[in-house]
Amino acid sequence: MKYVGLYTQQRRNNTRSFLLLALFPIIIVGLIALFCYILAYMQTADEYGATAYTTPLFTNLFTEIAPWGIGIVGVWFLIAYFANTSMIANATGARPLQRRENPRVYNIVENLTMSCGMKMPQVNVIDTPMLNAFASGINDKTYTVTVTTGLCNLLNDDELTGVIAHELTHIRNRDTRLLIVSIVFVGIMSTLTAIALRMMWHTFLWGGAGSRNDRDNNKNGGVAVIVVMLLAVVLTIIGYFFTMLTRFAISRKREYMADAGGAEMCGNPLALASALEKISNRPYTTDNGREDVQQLFIIHPQALSSGDISGWINNLFSTHPSTESRIKFLRSL
Length: 333
Prior knowledge:
The chain is mainly α. The protein is built from 14 helices and 4 strands. It has helices at about 5-45, 55-80, 85-90, 105-115, 150-155, 155-170, 175-205, 210-215, 220-245, 255-265, 270-280, 290-295, 310-315, 325-330; strands at about 95, 120-125, 135, 145-150.
């Protein structure tokens, strides 16, 4: 792997974060515009497909709908962006770890941060015998390193130091900020997709209710409503597809870089390789299987799949390289 310095990686992640933030409103506005145009076309086109009044109606619809849509989604994004710490804690079941509860972990974090001139992050713990760890946060006030109790109990001091050094490197490289933007971005679009599907389902139920005469009398109106809802679903799914492309902005090289940075910080690449090997045997995953949160973990369960077509596909779209390749890389340092 080509060497990339700390400041180069920080600059790249800052640029990617900015591009994702810029891409989000562009996708939202584009979907609203496309939906308004299709709706205007349906209302104005005659039997020959004439669209003389489509553009004026589209303009009116867009000017009425766009500010509300952009405003609601914008507020939603800001709330999720700045409340990411509590949202991730709720999704993973993490809680603050008190120094007196586990001074060993605190001493490791303090020693590592002092050695590289970092501020001490918040330390959280997940009460589970399963193994994993992750870093999160967007600034010094929210940066957090989270470990599981199983990880603390199973790993020796050198291995635990390597894992925590890996997570601190993610914070130093500002990987966590990029990941948080991606999590919020994809989360909003997946929620919009779910809402559109639910609305379509209720529309079908509503459209099927009533007497036969009622259905006949309202046939055209019912069909129009169903078509509009289907369009909403299609457009939302298209938007979600584009947001999934943001995962490709999260290069899998960031894990190699965090491994290399963690190995340098702790001074023991083989200890980190040993820790990854142990974690891969029983990695912790969120109870609800949230993919957006699990991409924060030091080992993503998806990256463990191998030996079949589904495993190959998972690895192709995974935000993490395979654990075997990471261990091989660490042992070559």
